[in-house]
Write a structure and sequence with these properties.
Layout: H1 7-16, H2 26-31, E1 36-40, H3 44-49, E2 55-56, E3 59-60, H4 63-69, E4 74-79, H5 90-102, E5 106-111, H6 134-154, E6 161-164, E7 171-172, E8 177-178, H7 186-207, E9 214-219, H8 225-237, E10 244-248, H9 251-254, H10 257-271, E11 274-280, H11 310-325, E12 332-338, E13 363-364
Parallel strand pairs: 1-4, 1-12, 2-13, 4-5, 5-6, 6-9, 9-10, 10-11, 11-12
Antiparallel strand pairs: 2-3, 7-8
Helix pairs in contact: 1-11, 6-7, 8-10, 10-11
Length: 370
């Protein structure tokens, strides 16, 4: 399928947000309330190793450089404890963090506290922690968090923001830190809060006097104000101190943009904290390129008014950023597009190929405005 100019997506977002100061330098991101235009590119090095190539105007380029040139100012990476294939481990994270730092981009690190995917349906402990007592589990969360941040500090690539857990609406490190029914009890919430607090303490101690790292708590409930309030009321009641509320917002799972807008308003006024849409994406086509089953591929997955086209994807992002900008008290601080780089590579299929900001071949279309 012929794909139009992808860069228009980010250009239009930037124009819609032109009241905000922008400077790609990390010092600027730390000092001023810049609106975040971020991307989670955690698959990038694996795609590169699997033969994937990114290009613009027919010339192969680093995907990070392309994203930066088209308005992105922040990069998110996930980290797994001991992943079987070694991608998203500490060694890989250090290498990717260096690339991010060299380009002057902001850096959000997403601790999953698992060896693989952690999300609302599963929060599996790392194998190395599976049989620990609760006290030893707390110690492990602290020491691991501190060690990762200290390693990043040692190469001068401290993250600007750290996410403690990934989509932890039902807690993390199950079952010790599980809080959804039938685990929704004061004792379980106290244990979950203790685990999160140990992670925060580890991040702060790992950074030491050299860095001040903002802490995000991330859940999946972009359009669910009741679920969001239930979670953050309980977390704050148990004394967890954090800076940023992170929400995932995919319309096929999390409701309409009006639902999101209502939730952002309620959360901003109730908690007076910055809010970031930590994950979002939208299809530019429902077609497939490889034989890997796509996660989003049916007409019923689409948000009304936004077709599965380049124009539909672009308008979705423009309107989403406007919803975020309209959050009361200027508390809406931006978004992260999830896996804009997740193209199909010769040795790696993609279930996300129709959601990227590149075409099926990895090309960012020529003629893109700067």
């Amino acid at each position: 399928m012929n794909r139009c100019v992808n860069a228009l997506i980010l250009l239009c977002i930037m124009l819609a947000c032109s009241v905000h100061t922008y400077d790609a330098g990390r010092s600027q991101l730390r000092q001023e309330p810049v609106l975040i235009k971020g991307a989670d590119v955690s698959f990038l090095d694996q795609i590169e190793d699997s033969g994937g190539v990114y290009a613009e105007d027919g010339v192969a380029r680093d995907a990070l450089e392309i994203l930066k040139d088209h308005g992105f100012n922040y990069i998110r990476l996930r980290i797994w404890h001991t992943p079987p294939d070694r991608y998203c481990n500490l060694e890989r994270t250090l290498a990717m963090a260096a690339r991010i730092n060299d380009l002057g981009l902001g850096f959000l690190l997403d601790f999953h506290y698992s060896d693989s995917w952690a999300d609302p349906g599963k929060q599996t402990k790392p194998v190395a922690w599976a049989d620990l007592s609760f006290d030893d589990l707390k110690d492990s969360v602290y020491l691991y968090s501190r060690g990762v941040i200290a390693a990043l500090d040692s190469q001068n690539t401290l993250p600007d923001m750290v996410q403690l857990g990934n989509e932890i609406i039902c807690g993390m490190l199950w079952d010790d830190g599980r809080v959804c029914h039938p685990f929704d009890t004061p004792d379980q919430w106290a244990k979950f809060a203790a685990l999160v607090s140990e992670g925060i303490r580890g991040v702060n101690d790992g950074a030491g006097a050299r860095g001040s790292i903002r802490i995000m708590i991330h859940i999946d409930r972009g359009g669910d104000s009741g679920g969001s309030r239930w979670f953050f009321d309980n977390l704050l009641t148990h004394g967890v101190d954090f800076d940023v509320i992170g929400l995932s917002y995919y319309p096929w799972w999390h409701g309409t943009m009006d639902n999101l807008s209502a939730n952002l308003e309620i959360l901003a006024e109730r908690y007076d904290k910055d809010i970031i849409v930590a994950e979002t994406a939208y299809p530019w086509t429902l077609d497939w390129f490889d034989n890997t089953h796509n996660i989003v591929g049916l007409p019923e997955h689409l948000h009304p008014g936004y077709p599965a086209s380049v124009d539909g994807q672009r308008q979705f992002l423009i309107d989403l950023m406007e919803v975020i900008r309209s959050t009361p008290g200027n508390r809406g601080r931006g978004l992260f597009y999830w896996s804009p780089e997740y193209i199909s590579a010769p040795a790696l299929g993609s279930p996300w190929e129709n959601m990227t900001l590149f075409d099926f071949s990895g090309l960012w279309r020529s003629g893109s405005p700067r």
